[in-house]
Amino acid sequence: RQRVAALVEENSALDRELKEKSMVVETLRVKLDQVKQENEAQVAQLKQSLEDKSGQLERLAQVVQASDMSLLGGSGGSSDEGDGVGRTLLPVKAGKKPESVAGRVLSLYLNAAGRAHKGASDPRPEEGPISNDVASLKEEVFVLRDKLKRTESDRALMREQLLNLASPATTHADPLESLTPQQLVARVKALQTQVQAQDLVRADLVQSNSEALQRIREGFQQASQTARRDVSKQSDQDSAHLMKKYQESVKKYKREVASLRKRLAESHNVCDVLRTRLQELAEFLDTILNLDEQGLLDLSEIGASHLSTMRESLAQSRELSRSISQSLVTSMGSQDDQDTPHRHPSSAGGGFQPTPLFEADVSSCSSSFSYRATTPNEVIPSDREMFSSSGETTHDGASSGSPAAPQMEPPAPSDFPPPAVYESRLRELSQKISCQAEEMDKKSNALRTLRGELDQRTDQISQQSQVIEALRGEVDRLRCQ
């Protein structure tokens, strides 16, 4: 296990070293490319300057040839002396041939010029400056060639170093021991350049991240503000709409409640009228029975059983009138406690004016009783005529100036409107009121739900604001690092 661990560590170390070597090779490749570009530029410049110098030499040769041709008319000389002059004008090193065509042409022209000037007593004044210019040009050409050779040797040396670094033989060796001081300096410069490039990249990344974060923050702030405005606007619109509907519903319910109270008061008044009518009928029936007992009216055709039934109906009618009176007094008292202006006075407290809604019911109730006379010529007046305010009929059955008492058929119990009708109407009104109350409760619950949603959205906005603050803190921390 220890050997395996050692091998693993050695392998990891070799991998790290290989990565370092790869980085160094990449750096040297970049440097080599830069040197190649610089050398190519220098070579191009040297070639251009060499071409310029060659052009200058050719122009000088043409000038010399033109000047010499004008002086070659009959003069001649030995080739040895001409060669000596040529050698003095264009010195050439031993064992080294001129490499340029322009140089060779120039040497030939100079030799010819030397042979032409052999026999002249005094030399021309232009020979010294021309030979000096040619010598300086040749020296400059040689300098440029040497510089080009040195550049090529430097390039070859750089290529060899790159091959040595990339070769596997030097992978396990120490890279610092095999490098010269110049290479170490170059490597340090390359590493510094790489560090500067990494710093620039890091600065660009930090700046781009900060700009992106700033854009995200601004976008989130704009979105949150827009959401807040939309939510507030929508909530205001919903609240205004709900408030308007609520006010309309309240007005509608108030009108319905007022109508129901009015109808309830009218029903109380109708009950009071029916109670009064029942009392009048009971008194009328009691008067008939008293007349029979006094012998003023013959009811022998009715029968004893029918008379006993009539007396029982009379007792029940009086009991019903008494209970209706008590219930009316109780209900009117509770209604006075709730709303005094909706009260309608009864017949006992003041004059009663029935509404058109119940006039048909009262008229039908009053016209449901029919009276039949014993003789065709005698007609029994109605109960309103008998019990008018003139006082013709009294409670004890005495009458003045009335004809003989006729025999009348008592009203049937089915002619009276049952109290269940009024109870059913009251029950329907109560159901309507309860339904309207339930609708109001539903609308109130809907308003509470909307308020809860608004609170939830407000909480979401606050949570998003907290997230933004946390992101700001993280950005500040990264900037500090």
Automatic annotation (TrEMBL):
Residues 408-420 have a biased composition (Pro residues). Residues 18-63, 243-270, 426-481 form a coiled coil. Residues 318-357, 376-420 are annotated as: Disordered. Residues 318-335, 387-402 have a biased composition (Polar residues). Keywords: Coiled coil. It comes from the Eukaryota. The keyword Chloroplast does not apply. The keyword Coiled coil applies. This is Uncharacterized protein. It comes from Cyprideis torosa.
